[in-house]
Write a structure and sequence with these properties.
By secondary structure, this protein is an alpha/beta fold. Helix content is about 35%, strand content about 15%. It is built from three helices and five strands. It has helices spanning about 15-35, 75-85, 105-120; strands at about 60, 70, 75, 95-100, 125.
Length: about 130
C-alpha cells in the first residue's frame, strides 16, 4: 500500500514582527510627547531690573558682568556673606532665590552658590525664564 505524503502547507505569516513594530512606535511617540509638552498659556516673566521680586523670601541677583544684588540693592562680593548672615538670622530662615542673567558664566554662579552656603543658606531655589 502506498501512502501519499501530505502536501506541505506554506507557513502562515507571523504577526509578531508587526506587533513589535507597533509597540516600538507607541513607546517612541509616548516619549516624544513627554519631552515636548507645551505650556498651556504664554507667560512673560517680570524683568528683574524693573520690578520687585515676586517670590517670598530673599532674592539674590547676579548680573552678566558679575555684579551682585540682594533684594534689588547692589552689594560687593565680599559684603555678600555678612549681609546674608544678617538677613538669615530670622527664625525660620527665609528661602533664598538665586536669579542669574542668562549670559553669566556657570562658574560665577557656582561661586555665588558657594558663598551662599558659607553664609548659612539652608534652602536655595534657582529661577529661570522659559
Amino acid at each position: 500500500m502506498r501512502l501519499r505524503r501530505p502536501n506541505k502547507k506554506e507557513a502562515p505569516e507571523t504577526m509578531l514582527p508587526l506587533i513589535n513594530i507597533v509597540f516600538m512606535l507607541l513607546i517612541f511617540f509616548m516619549l516624544l510627547a513627554n519631552f515636548n509638552a507645551s505650556a498651556p498659556f504664554s507667560v512673560t516673566p517680570p524683568d528683574a531690573a524693573d520690578s520687585a521680586p515676586t517670590q517670598q523670601g530673599l532674592t539674590i541677583f547676579v548680573a552678566a558682568d558679575g555684579r551682585l544684588a540682594v533684594d534689588g540693592e547692589e552689594v560687593s562680593p565680599t559684603a555678600l556673606v555678612p549681609r546674608l548672615r544678617e538677613r538669615l538670622s530670622a527664625d525660620p530662615p527665609p528661602v533664598v532665590w538665586l536669579r542669574a542673567d542668562r549670559d553669566v558664566d556657570a562658574d560665577r554662579v557656582i561661586a555665588v552658590m558657594e558663598r551662599l552656603r558659607i553664609a548659612g543658606v539652608v534652602t536655595l531655589r534657582l529661577t529661570v525664564n522659559r
